[in-house]
Amino acid sequence: MGALVGDIDYQARLRADFRRRRVHPTVETLVWSHVIGKPAERVQLSADVTMSKRLDKERELFGRLSVEQLAELATRSQELVDTAAAMARANSVGPVPATVRRAQAAITHSCGPKDTGDDVTASNEPPSLAAVVKDVATGESAEPPRGATEG
């Protein structure tokens, strides 16, 4: 069979048949794919499978942590969120959208005044993520209620 590939008469007959379109379609396909290359196949991957696997691994990982460890991670996470918010505020140019203004007003209204011991000031920040995690996990509040006095 290898000798047939090197046979000049065979190659001449194949070339003539190919030009007259007398070769079988599978042979023509093989010749074209050999000469010009096989077309690139389009493959679409779904990120849903990857993300759900990743989230399952993270859930399992967080399930192994204690409440104190989760609270520490929540505190660090809140710090990163606060840093990102500060960066976004520094980068923002132009008017603040109405939906953001309404959300800010709702947060300010829901937080109310906060007693710091010496001076009563209004707080524009909701309870920290660490406090929420601890509240949920232990049923206790990590911060005194807003507006409550210590004594």
Q: Summarize the helix and strand pattern as letters.
A: HHHHHHEEH
Quaternary state reads single chain
* N-to-C span: 99 Å
Q: Cα-atom Rg, whole angstroms?
A: 34 Å
Strand content: under 5%
Mean pLDDT: 74
Number of helices in the DSSP assignment: 7
Which structural class do you get from the secondary structure elements? mainly alpha
Query: What is the helical fraction, as a range of percent?
Result: 55-70%
Q: What is the overall shape?
A: elongated
Side-by-side strand order of the widest sheet: 1-2
Count the E strands: 2
Largest pleated sheet: 2 strands, antiparallel
Spans where pLDDT lies below 50 across 5 or more residues: 118-122
Verbal overview:
The chain is mostly helical and 151 residues long. It has a domain at 7-36. 63% of the residues lie in helices and 4% in strands. The protein has helices at residues 2-6, 8-19, 25-36, 47-63, 67-91, 98-111, 129-138; strands at residues 113-115, 120-122. It has a two-stranded antiparallel sheet. A hairpin with a 4-residue loop joins strand 1 (113-115) and strand 2 (120-122). The protein is elongated, with a radius of gyration of 34 Å. The termini are far apart. The relative contact order is 0.07.
Task: Kindly summarize this structure in a few lines.
This protein has 7 helices and 2 strands; from the N terminus they run ααααααββα. By secondary structure, the protein is mostly helical. The chain has a domain at 7-36.
